[in-house]
Amino acid sequence: MSIGVIMEADFEEIESERSWQRAFFNIKISSLKHDYTTEEAKKVENRPLNRYRDVHPYDHSRVVLLRSESDYINANIVPVKRAGREYILTQGPLPETLSQFWLMVWEQNTKGIVMLNKLIEKNLLKCHKYWPDKDNLEMNFESVALAVSFVSESAKDSYICRTFRLVDGETGNGREVFQFHYMNWPDFGVPQSPDDFLDFLSDVRRSGCLESHCGPAIVHCSAGIGRSGTFCLVDSILQMIEHNHLHESEINLREVLLEMRRYRMSLVQAPEQLRFSYLAIIEALRRRDGRSPYLSRKKDEDAPPPPPHRARPVMAMKTVVNYTEDSSSEDDVNEHDVGIDEERNANGNDAIGREPPEELEGGDEVLKIVTNSGESPADSACASADASESDSDSESDSGPPPLPPKDIPMGELSGTQPQREPPQSPLPTDRVLPNLSEDLHSFEKEILAKEWMRDESITLPGGNQTPNFDQEMLIRKRLHEQKIQQKVQAIKKGVKDAEAANDRRTLFENIGIGVVVFLGAGILLYRIIDYVRS
């Protein structure tokens, strides 16, 4: 049995059980045992250099700058040894970190930069523009003695290939650096279809910037964990399968992801991104083997048969189906991150919407490293993309279907009343609160901690048990309820403040009217007295 078939079987099992949330949650819980420090990121002088307040590089794998006033940059080296890959995952540069970013490119001997986000997303600045263009041909960074100049640019439907020349002012040496900018990947989401993503990955690979003979490629989105982690996961798995020829029993996507999370926190940030990773790998392997696309096959299999011909009309039947959608089914996008972006934008600075707190490719030659003679690697890579790609703004028939809904309680399916939860008992004081990893965000930590204190069957950080799916749903439901309660309280406070302001305004208006009436009466009385006297 080939690895592609095994991967499809694993995908279909999770898909049929509608358990992507559960699979992602289990990965997140398993990552809690990683007790790595992030002391450098928390230093007072380094805090302004972090785009998001809860996305920090681990100390043991962080990139250390050599010839800068500060050796800190929010970036980690992530090796995947079985794939022969090494990546640098980092946040989108801030205005304060542009020079450090290019110094990292120079010192790490990086040949390629993979950018997976737009500069502005949802009206928020998610990354500062760090490269020169046709209108601004050169950028100089005197603090690190580096200069970057624009060479060329080739635009495709969903991505842009750029070439720069990076020159060291101290030695006069220079080299070309390629940037591959993919623009169809929404934050916390996934591309519409694996097809153009696979074409993008194919171009990146053909440039040679992912190969071991040059320095690690730099991969970034806004926070450098969601989209960046998904890209590296897909590329690593495909590299293991197609070039290292590992046996299917040796490759487990979830194990590879957990290994990558040992070097940078929170890689692959949402259940949809985990699902897309599977789907992109499956489609790439089908391309390689000359099989039909997985999504089109599923569409044909799932299509219902045509209705039989009827000689007479069918009597109308009324069917009532009650379906209650779990309030916890919404994506857990961290609202406090948006607040940070808005705060920094309001101050006129670059958005620090710390993306958690954070987002495959190839044609028939997706996994072949080919460089045409007479062309630079970047030019040959860009020229290979299919010029007939569909418009990224239109709906694609081959796009992945939305993430299936969560499991419906058995009580809803059978028509019986689901069992009610027992009343909450006070938090016991004899349980020791575990030291939760930074892999969870502050609000989630609070909820998980409360559940830990209430339910002794939950063992989060290092025990043999993990929360089951019902407990996970309970946690998410309470998290959602608390968010709603906070919004309700904020609305009530706003109404109360508005009423108080209106009362003050009414009081001042009444006082003003009284003063005017008093003065008018006084003037009238004075004139009457003066008239009588005269």
TrEMBL record:
<dbReference type="InterPro" id="IPR000242">
    <property type="entry name" value="PTP_cat"/>
</dbReference>
<dbReference type="InterPro" id="IPR029021">
    <property type="entry name" value="Prot-tyrosine_phosphatase-like"/>
</dbReference>
<feature type="region of interest" description="Disordered">
    <location>
        <begin position="374"/>
        <end position="434"/>
    </location>
</feature>
<dbReference type="Pfam" id="PF00102">
    <property type="entry name" value="Y_phosphatase"/>
</dbReference>
<feature type="region of interest" description="Disordered">
    <location>
        <begin position="292"/>
        <end position="362"/>
    </location>
</feature>
<dbReference type="InterPro" id="IPR051985">
    <property type="entry name" value="NR_tyrosine_phosphatase"/>
</dbReference>
<protein>
    <recommendedName>
        <fullName>protein-tyrosine-phosphatase</fullName>
        <ecNumber>3.1.3.48</ecNumber>
    </recommendedName>
</protein>
<dbReference type="InterPro" id="IPR016130">
    <property type="entry name" value="Tyr_Pase_AS"/>
</dbReference>
<dbReference type="GO" id="GO:0005634">
    <property type="term" value="C:nucleus"/>
</dbReference>
<feature type="domain" description="Tyrosine-protein phosphatase">
    <location>
        <begin position="7"/>
        <end position="284"/>
    </location>
</feature>
<keyword id="KW-0904">Protein phosphatase</keyword>
<dbReference type="GO" id="GO:0046426">
    <property type="term" value="P:negative regulation of receptor signaling pathway via JAK-STAT"/>
</dbReference>
<feature type="compositionally biased region" description="Basic and acidic residues">
    <location>
        <begin position="335"/>
        <end position="345"/>
    </location>
</feature>
<keyword id="KW-0472">Membrane</keyword>
<dbReference type="InterPro" id="IPR000387">
    <property type="entry name" value="Tyr_Pase_dom"/>
</dbReference>
<feature type="domain" description="Tyrosine specific protein phosphatases">
    <location>
        <begin position="195"/>
        <end position="275"/>
    </location>
</feature>
<keyword id="KW-1133">Transmembrane helix</keyword>
<dbReference type="GO" id="GO:0048666">
    <property type="term" value="P:neuron development"/>
</dbReference>
<keyword id="KW-0378">Hydrolase</keyword>
<feature type="compositionally biased region" description="Low complexity">
    <location>
        <begin position="375"/>
        <end position="387"/>
    </location>
</feature>
<dbReference type="GO" id="GO:0004726">
    <property type="term" value="F:non-membrane spanning protein tyrosine phosphatase activity"/>
</dbReference>
<feature type="transmembrane region" description="Helical">
    <location>
        <begin position="511"/>
        <end position="529"/>
    </location>
</feature>
<keyword id="KW-0597">Phosphoprotein</keyword>
<dbReference type="GO" id="GO:0019901">
    <property type="term" value="F:protein kinase binding"/>
</dbReference>
<dbReference type="GO" id="GO:0070373">
    <property type="term" value="P:negative regulation of ERK1 and ERK2 cascade"/>
</dbReference>
<dbReference type="InterPro" id="IPR003595">
    <property type="entry name" value="Tyr_Pase_cat"/>
</dbReference>
<keyword id="KW-0812">Transmembrane</keyword>
<comment type="similarity">
    <text>Belongs to the protein-tyrosine phosphatase family. Non-receptor class 1 subfamily.</text>
</comment>
<feature type="compositionally biased region" description="Basic and acidic residues">
    <location>
        <begin position="292"/>
        <end position="302"/>
    </location>
</feature>
<dbReference type="GO" id="GO:0012505">
    <property type="term" value="C:endomembrane system"/>
</dbReference>
<dbReference type="GO" id="GO:0005737">
    <property type="term" value="C:cytoplasm"/>
</dbReference>
